[in-house]
Amino acid sequence: MNIVLLGKPGAGKGMFAEFLQKHYGFTHISTGDLCRKNIRDNTIYGKIVEEHISKGQLVPLEIILDMLKSEIKKETSIGFILDGFPRNIIQAKELEKIVDVDAVLMIDVPDEIILERILNRRICPNCHKVYNLKDTNGKCLECGTVLVKRADDDLKIVKNRLQVYEKETKPLIEYFNKKIIVIDNSSQIDVAISKIKEIIDNLLKKTGENVWFVGHKKI
Ligand code: AMP
């Protein structure tokens, strides 16, 4: 079973994807993480990816697809959680050539909460865990490394990313239509997590899959 997580930057896609990976054994693919890894590792794509990320723009399709395809080729126990892909209808059509999309969880959060969360978001440069500054003393709770801000979590870039979301990504709600399941993540995180759990349990019951099913792939 393959699930797409849709939502504005900072809506909590990464956190829900992590939960789904730990709880059910889904394979989490974050195209944003893949982009940042390419920058860190200074790959052939690194420079061009950085140029786009630093402006809050989408990275060119061929690069994103290349990164995505090599992840999807890897084995998965139950299926994939796609976090940050697709970002527009062209990407959605490309995705459907590679894997079946069973459900799309749309994480809904109003803009004012998004801005507050993103501006307080900090990451551990060592183990890449994500925190809200308010919940830490500035250091990673796992490895003690001093937390840093993501380069694109700057107010001007965030505003651009939100515009890109409105223009490019929001039309996917209509595109995926009946596959869309809306999750409100504007208040208590535990409430959103239990809702997601209920949804996935029901989907698994319906498809008759268990968590050790090998996700169906087209490539
Ligand atoms: P994220 O971590 O998902 O917020 O993504 C951070 C940045 O990576 C985005 O603002 C884009 O520049 C780039 N990116 C991530 N996923 C995609 C995608 N599917 N298509 C194009 N660019 C992407």
Q: Could you explain the architecture of this structure?
A:
By secondary structure, the protein is α/β, with parallel strands linked by helices. The strands form 2 sheets. Strands 2-3-1-4-7 form a 5-stranded parallel sheet, sandwiched between helices. A two-stranded antiparallel sheet has the order 5-6. The longest helix has 19 residues. The C terminus is likely disordered. The protein binds adenosine monophosphate. The site of adenosine monophosphate has 17 residues, from helix 2 and helix 3. The site of adenosine monophosphate (AMP) has 17 residues, from helix 2 and helix 3.
Tags for this entry?
alpha/beta, five-stranded parallel sheet, 46% helix, 9 helices, 219 residues, binds adenosine monophosphate
Describe the secondary structure blueprint for this structure.
Layout: E1 3-7, H1 13-24, E2 27-30, H2 31-40, H3 46-53, H4 61-72, E3 80-83, H5 89-98, E4 103-108, H6 111-119, E5 121-123, E6 130-132, H7 155-169, H8 171-176, E7 180-184, H9 189-207
Helix pairs in contact: 2-3
Bound molecules: adenosine monophosphate.
